[in-house]
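Deviations from the work plan: none for this task. Representative record:
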Amino acid sequence: MGNCLKRVTGNQQDNTTLLSNNPEPNVSTSGSSQEGLGPPIPYNQAAYYPSIATRERHLQSTNLNIGRGIGVNLVQSTGSAGLSEEEQQVRIAKRIGLIQHLPMREYDGAKKGECVICMMELQAGEEVRYLPCMHTYHAICIDDWLLRSLTCPSCMEPVDAALISSYHPTT
Amino acid sequence: MSEPQSALLLRKQLAELNKNPVEGFSAGLIDDNDIYRWEVLIIGPPDTLYEGGFFKAHLQFPKEYPLRPPRMKFITEIWHPNIDKNGDVCISILHEPGDDKWGYEKASERWLPVHTVETILISVISMLADPNDESPANVDAAKEWRESYTEFKRKVARCVRKSQEECL
């Protein structure tokens, strides 16, 4: 239960991802571009989630997603906490990179299933994301959520912890 | 453009709640043309101080629902440690994902996109039955609940009576 009183408390961030606690995450695909950015930015300080790029790709790759799934354009401008837009973009790009390590397939329709985020039945041909805990959602629904919180909405399993343990660097 | 998914999802829940009402509350829209603003009537849970009361509350959903939580505000006066004096409800499941201003909430205790009107109200009803005095929104109520329970009961009973009169 949370405290809604206005007061200053510690700034412990339980949702700071395990990845950002690492000196330099293995899954990083951007390499040297992150140098000089300082310590990882706590997730809750950036309220800017441009998931448009991923969504556009979804739409290009399949027409079936149009009109389905919780596709909300999330451009907010509340409290950027002194982050430049570029820094935020880098943060978001890192998270999108992480999300893309999660397997995604076209739903084969063999079994009945529901995406509990949009409460719609999964239809054959729709792009479905498989989380490490084996829960599945429309990619377009879960990707927007994972940009906000790296937690499975059904079992609350942290997604990044499982990703790290399953990731093998190739270099 | 067709209706956003958040509206479809809320409409679906409204239809489902109309078809299969859930015990303990009733739900509808404040304005039939605005799916994002709901009015709920919570029946004071049996065997609690709130038993017999009828508490009206409003839920305001953001366009980004279910990725972001609604805000909930009691319209009926209610004395409770986790409801502030303006009626705003303070429970962790209604706190934004990734938002950990207070420093001690786990991500799993905060908002999840699988929450529905029904699960939110079930949490609120359980909060009525079982206040959390470690994170009060109404400090005076929390203090009374802990230290002068008789006075706390008296205030709640007054709210219950008032809520019954307002409902008539």
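The domain at 104-163 of chain A is CATH 3.30.40.10 (Herpes Virus-1).
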